[in-house]
Write a structure and sequence with these properties.
It catalyses: Endohydrolysis of (1->4)-beta-D-xylosidic linkages in xylans. GO terms for molecular function: endo-1,4-beta-xylanase activity. This protein has 15 helices and ten strands. Helix 2 runs parallel beside helix 15 and helix 13 packs parallel to helix 15. It has an eight-stranded parallel β-barrel, surrounded by six helices. It is 44% helix and 16% strand. It has a single domain, classed as Glycosidases (TIM Barrel, Alpha-Beta Barrel). The longest helix is centred in the C-terminal third of the chain and has 20 residues. With 359 residues, it is an alpha/beta fold. Bound molecules: ligand 9MR. Ligand 9MR binds next to loops.
Length: 359
């Protein structure tokens, strides 16, 4: 039997196979959901920013980390280098070197930057916490210091940051305003002040609240909802609700995530998932990784279903550099890529969810 001559399509496929050196990259799938399309390209089509927190040491030292960060994500957040202890290590002496390096990286790779974070109770400079503790910084002085920190930092990045986490974790686990130095010294008005000062320094940036355990409708997310409603009624520029999304597969998936996003949306606010990771007891196995993938999927899907959900950021994308094992003993494997940068089921699921047509 004489072999049939190759038709043009088959010949092209063969040529592509030879060029690429592997048959698996020649896909019969339509371009919109091809397995090699980066997350950011799929998210673009959904009008969503897909982001990652960036560890600046890894970015400097690890080429593979850099390559994937640039290829997959359209938004980056500084995991640590925009926090107060990093940007004002000595009183009155600002150091934005590391933060600027991230902004440059983002610019080169056409990525947007989330600012994290202006007011928090952690990672404050030692001079500040010591001064408050020994009374050398009184309430009037502390308010001035906070004003200057917000103004200097936000002005420094003016026009380069699209969303700022203005206040971080201001409610405690009982849904009461957290008993931080800010509340103790300044009273609850520090919250409105922080938003007003940030807005004055860069009117173009969208200003966010940000916290964990606020995924579903619960006492804590409701406390945020009530606060946001009240502040907005007073004309305070609170423009976004940041939902961190630190999940653990041993707990049930939080209820009513989409309803929660929608109620903030109904106030005219944006919403965002800002720090998503899904941890598990080690060692990981197939069942756990499948459950993890499903949690990621449900968060992404909820965000896609709500028009004003504008960004979805993972808190690091590889298990190689995750904060989880250092804080939760015996736990880890929380990210989309494993320690050697292989994609996990969670990655594939996020990709497929972003690629799906109907939302
Ligand atoms: O991932 C961050 C880790 O490297 C720091 O040591 C830690 C210090 O508190 O902060 C981590 O990031 C936190 C984020 O800024 C706010 N939400 C919780 C995150 C995980 O702790």
């Amino acid at each position: 039997m004489t072999p049939r001559p190759l038709g043009p399509a088959t010949a092209a496929a063969l040529a592509a196979m030879l060029l690429l050196g592997t048959a698996s990259t020649v896909s019969a799938q339509p371009a919109h959901d091809r397995g090699d399309t980066p997350l950011r390209a799929l998210a673009d089509r959904q009008d969503l920013r897909i982001g990652t927190a960036v560890d600046m040491n890894a970015l400097a030292d690890d080429e593979q980390y850099r390559t994937i960060a640039a290829r997959e994500f359209s938004s980056v957040t500084a995991e640590n280098v925009m926090k107060w202890e990093a940007v004002e290590p000595q009183q009155g002496v600002n150091d934005f070197t590391q933060a600027d390096a991230l902004v440059d990286f983002a610019h080169r790779n056409k990525q947007a930057v989330r600012g994290h974070t202006l007011v928090w109770h952690n990672q404050l400079p030692a001079w500040l916490t010591a001064g408050v503790a020994d009374g050398s910084i009184d309430a009037t002085e502390l308010r001035r210091i906070l004003h200057d920190h917000i103004t200097t930092t936000v002005k420094h990045f003016k026009g380069k940051i699209y969303q700022w986490d203005v206040v971080n974790e201001i409610f405690d686990d009982n849904a009461q305003l957290r008993d931080s130095i800010w509340l103790q010294q300044l009273g609850p008005s520090y919250i409105a002040d922080a938003f007003r000062w940030a807005h004055a320094a860069d009117p173009g940036a969208k200003l966010f609240l940000n916290d964990y355990n606020t995924e579903g409708v619960n006492a804590k997310s409701t406390a945020y909802y009530e606060l946001a409603k009240e502040l907005r009624a007073q004309g305070v520029p609170v423009q976004g609700m940041g939902i961190q999304g630190h999940l653990d597969i041993q707990y049930g998936f939080p209820g009513d995530v989409q309803d929660n996003l929608e109620r903030f949306s109904a106030l005219g606010m944006q919403t965002a998932f800002t720090e998503v990771d899904v941890r598990m007891d080690l060692p990981a196995d197939d069942a756990k990784l499948t459950r993890q993938a499903d949690d990621y999927r449900r968060l992404v899907q909820a965000c896609l279903n709500v028009r004003r959900c504008t960004s979805f950021t993972v808190w690091g994308y590889t298990d190689k550099y995750s904060w989880i094992p250092g804080v939760f003993t015996g736990q880890g494997a929380a990210n989309l890529f494993d320690e050697v940068f292989a994609v996990k089921p969670a990655y594939t699921t996020v990709r497929d969810t972003l690629a799906a047509r109907e939302h």
